[in-house]
Design goal:
This protein has about 300 residues and is α+β, with helices and mostly antiparallel strands. A 6-stranded mixed sheet has the order 1-2-5-4-3-6. The protein is elongated, with a radius of gyration of 32 Å.
């Protein structure tokens, strides 16, 4: 593998080929023994942490601030939740991650959506890679991020022309469900749209949740498009309806066969009333049959 020109290596891998070979051998060995297609190989023992729910709530809100905000650049201390940002992991997260949204209430939560601070730049580069600006996305979920696999991590992004994958958005959720997948997909598409592009297709592993999330996004787009067309056409439709009523009514009243509504009626006021009722029913029926419906989604 090291001599294959099609296999790219990092400088660290090139400088320590023995360690690189050891990692490859270990991966193959452990993936065969794994109970879930190699995913357990990537699991590492987590560090012991005594962060409280309230502290995590503040950490997430801190990470929602802008990259150049005073809060991002504030001095951290050991007296509150900011002590996390004095650790190596905390400094890395503060320098690279923006939490897009979460539902933590200080005690519990069901999801955390986040992205790189440079994800908007990745979206701009991706849209330039495609002549039409329509990007092919890739999305998947994986286990192994916490003890007992109580949560899963989803990621979404795209590959460049060298087949290198660039994840842009992430979500930690209870499971690989269509709600989490839909939120992940929508945020990623939003970044492409902000960059002047959009998504064209998404590669998934065939999971029902990802398929459903994609279908719901398509339905939402179709509904949005319909609303735009309806709003543009509403005034025209109303004008057409008013004009059509006048045209149909004139046409009906000019037709001699309408007078047949009076045939067989008594030559009296009561007979005339029945004849007029027959004409009104014919007019109403024809007007309703030509009426345009305006549906608001």
């Amino acid at each position: 593998m090291q001599n294959d020109k099609d296999i790219t290596l990092t400088p660290a891998q090139e400088q320590n080929s023995e360690e690189f070979l050891s990692r490859i051998t270990s991966f193959i060995k452990n993936s065969k023994m794994s109970e879930c297609s190699g995913q357990k190989f990537f699991r590492q023992k987590g560090a012991k942490d005594d962060t409280t729910g309230e502290e995590l709530f503040h950490i997430l809100n801190h990470l929602m601030t802008a990259e150049d905000s005073d809060e991002r650049r504030s001095q951290f201390n050991m007296n509150d939740y900011t002590r996390y940002f004095m650790t190596a992991d905390g400094r890395l997260v503060n320098d690279m991650i923006r939490v897009n949204s979460h539902d933590h209430d200080g005690h519990t939560w069901t999801y955390i959506a986040f992205e790189f601070l440079h994800s908007p730049d990745l979206a701009k580069l991706a849209t330039k890679m495609y002549p039409t600006g329509l990007v092919q996305l890739e999305m998947d979920f994986f286990l192994g991020i916490c003890k007992g696999d109580q949560f899963q991590c989803g990621h979404c992004g795209n590959s460049d022309r060298n087949l290198k994958y660039w994840p842009m958005c992430f979500i930690i959720a209870k499971s690989e469900n269509h709600t989490a997948a839909g939120s992940l997909l929508k945020r990623t598409l939003g970044l492409y749209q902000e960059a002047g592009g959009d998504g064209k297709s998404v590669m998934v592993d065939g999971g029902k949740a990802l398929d459903k999330a994609t279908r719901l996004e398509n339905e939402a787009r179709a509904a949005s498009s319909s609303v735009e067309h309806v709003n543009e056409a509403s005034s025209s439709v109303e004008q057409v309806n008013a004009g059509m009523k006048r045209v149909v009514q004139s046409h009906i009243m000019a037709e001699s066969h309408v007078m047949a509504a009076f045939d067989g009626q008594e030559a009296s006021d009561e007979g005339d009333d029945r004849g007029r009722e027959n004409v009104e029913r014919k007019v109403t029926s024809l007007l309703e049959s030509h009426q345009f419906d305006i549906n608001h989604w």
